[in-house]
Amino acid sequence: MDRSAYTTVGRASRSTQPTPRLESLAQPKVREDRHGVVETQWGQYFPVSNAAKKAQPSERLEQLAESKKYHSHYRGEKPIQWPVSSSALTAMASLRLQQLSRPSSRTLIKDDYDPYKVSLPAKRARATPRLEELCVPLPRKVRQKKVIS
């Protein structure tokens, strides 16, 4: 529908006054000065005691606080760009590598190729006696059908 982008505010809406509850909710929260104290996400703070501020760590604690050393064989990450060696720039692929890199030829796809045609040897195939034996269902798992009379 074609309507104006501007909305018209009625006279009654323009002359209304907010409720005291709405006025109190519009006021910002009064917070005491908490400079240097970490606040949790719920607005609680836990002041640090003077004894904790003056505490000195033991030698063992200092030793445990040190970062672990890298392994002696550690190698840092490689740079994003590095120079390409001249042997890599002048390398030629061998004949066998070129043969392997070519896509395989699709000799089966011809104009008269029928994927649903069954070959004559497949039509003449017979199951072995062992396969026939395995195809028979187990007698203990066979249940007789119910006869409704």
User: How are helices and strands ordered from N to C?
Assistant: HHHHHHHH
Shape: extended
Q: Strand count, sense and closure of the main sheet?
A: none
Please state the CA-atom Rg, rounded to the nearest Å: 43 Å
Please state the structural category: mainly alpha
Are there runs of 5+ residues with pLDDT below 50, and where? none
Q: Please report the number of helical segments.
A: 8
- Average pLDDT, rounded to a whole number, is 85
The total strand number stands at: 0
Topology of this protein?
Layout: H1 11-14, H2 20-26, H3 50-54, H4 59-65, H5 86-89, H6 95-101, H7 120-124, H8 129-135
Keywords: Repeat
Protein name: Testicular haploid expressed gene protein-like
Region (Disordered): 1-33
